[in-house]
Write a sequence for this structure.
């Protein structure tokens, strides 16, 4: 006869942990925020300045509504305040303070509000999502950009059959500069495509970020890997059609960094020292060769000796920057084109240029030597942590044989791309570049081990005893 016993021989079966509805909504919100930041020009070209401003306010309010109760009510003493990227936040504080001496105070306050909103969003994502969830959220946002880019290019080429202007306005009479178009409809000819972001270089950069994230997620053995291959193929096609010389250079740097990381992981502690000497020698030879063969390289990349007009832009920016070399002329990232200080100052293809096409020169113009030092510290700190985050084996006890996580490659590859981008563009100090700087810096400082620690615990509905995680 079977006898019922209450003796705790084994724990009662429990359902697997499930994510709370609230956390699923946070993940969805993070994807929306990432899409709006990465594809900010698409939002602007769709809703205009007023609509995109309202959307920014709503997203920032939503981020605060999610993040503040999490910090204040649920775990106020456990929030890693000391792990915040203080060098980058110091730069943001200096940017706000510059309104006291800015030559364009209205532009300073307006663009600083944008910087603050993106900072809040980046801190929210780093606080509430795990490393795996961050990679998946970025992947989803980039898939939306790729899919919408293909859709709008197909629509313009096959249905509309004429170039598309921002905000869907009708084409005016006469010939206008092609740089004014949102989408030119070059999908099936030899021209460059702009995608939903409205810029060929930005589209190529989004494709490169997507390829990095897709490769990392593929290596983590995620589900639906076949679909990742499809999205990667689409990213390659769009990248080639966008044809950005800076992105091609970034690809070469990414491959070199990836090879260096793999060599460092396989080397012994003594062998790592020799590798660092080898890397330094290769870097010196590479930079020297690039300087000596710059004309040939520029020709191969389809660039003229003036770097598509950048030389003139840099000269004009330098002449204004050296008038206030210590604290700069005042923060404005991007430059506000309707402000009298920027309207008509530097004109390219009939449009007022809205950044210096070099992040270091841009920072020097706005916040002087002090700003350059703070920005350099912020990026060097990110590069340092990202490098050792990738090359050091994960350890929190005596076990020194744990496998590397493919996710550990994400920060160093993203950082390499952004630093190359900063040589010819100002994107790393604003919008998606600034978001990645804050997000990666804070997440690596707060959670230096993927899958381990409080910051890697996904909120769940309790269904009985949960396995203990390493603190």
């Amino acid at each position: 006869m079977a006898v019922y016993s209450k003796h705790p021989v084994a724990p009662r079966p429990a359902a697997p942990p499930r994510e709370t509805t609230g956390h699923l909504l946070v993940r969805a919100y993070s994807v929306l925020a990432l899409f709006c930041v990465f594809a900010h020009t698409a939002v602007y070209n769709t809703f205009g300045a007023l609509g995109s401003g309202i959307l920014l306010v709503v997203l920032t309010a939503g981020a605060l509504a999610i993040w503040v109760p999490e910090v204040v009510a649920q775990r106020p003493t456990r929030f890693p305040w000391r792990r915040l990227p203080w060098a980058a936040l110091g730069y943001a504080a200096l940017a706000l303070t510059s309104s006291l001496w800015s030559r364009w105070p209205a532009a300073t306050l307006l663009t600083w509000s944008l910087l603050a909103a993106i900072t809040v969003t980046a801190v929210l994502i780093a606080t509430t999502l795990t490393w795996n969830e961050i990679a998946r959220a970025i992947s989803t946002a980039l898939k939306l950009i790729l899919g919408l880019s293909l859709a709008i290019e197909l629509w313009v080429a096959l249905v509309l059959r004429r170039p598309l202007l921002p905000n869907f306005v009708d084409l005016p009479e006469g010939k206008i500069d092609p740089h004014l178009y949102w989408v030119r409809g070059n999908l099936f000819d030899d021209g460059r495509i702009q995608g939903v972001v409205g810029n060929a270089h930005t589209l190529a950069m989004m494709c490169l970020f997507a390829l990095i994230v897709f490769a990392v997620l593929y290596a983590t053995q995620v589900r639906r890997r076949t679909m990742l291959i499809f999205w990667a193929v689409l990213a390659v096609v769009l990248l080639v059609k966008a044809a950005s010389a800076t992105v091609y250079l970034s690809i070469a740097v990414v491959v070199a960094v990836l090879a260096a990381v793999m060599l460092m992981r396989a080397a012994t502690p003594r062998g790592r020292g020799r590798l660092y000497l080898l890397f330094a020698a290769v870097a010196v030879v590479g930079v020297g060769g690039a300087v000596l063969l710059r004309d040939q390289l520029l020709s191969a990349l389809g660039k003229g000796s003036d770097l598509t007009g950048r030389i003139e832009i840099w000269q004009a920016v330098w002449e204004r920057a050296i008038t206030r070399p210590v604290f700069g002329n005042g923060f404005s990232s991007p430059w506000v084109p309707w402000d009298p200080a920027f309207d008509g100052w530097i004109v390219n293809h009939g449009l007022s240029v809205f950044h210096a096409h070099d992040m270091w020169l841009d920072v020097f113009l706005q916040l002087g030597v002090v700003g350059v030092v703070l920005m350099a510290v912020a990026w060097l700190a990110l590069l340092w942590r990202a490098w050792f985050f990738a090359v050091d084996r994960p350890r929190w006890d005596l076990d020194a044989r744990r496998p590397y996580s493919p996710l550990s490659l994400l920060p160093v590859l993203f950082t390499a791309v952004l630093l190359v981008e900063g040589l010819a563009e100002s994107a790393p100090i604003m919008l998606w570049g600034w978001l990645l700087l804050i997000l990666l810096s804070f997440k690596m400082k707060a959670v230096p081990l993927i899958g381990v620690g409080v910051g890697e615990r996904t909120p769940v509905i309790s269904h009985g005893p949960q396995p203990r995680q390493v603190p």
In short: The longest strand covers residues 18-19. Confidence is low (pLDDT under 50) at residues 459-471. Residues 403 and 445 are 21 Å apart (CA to CA).
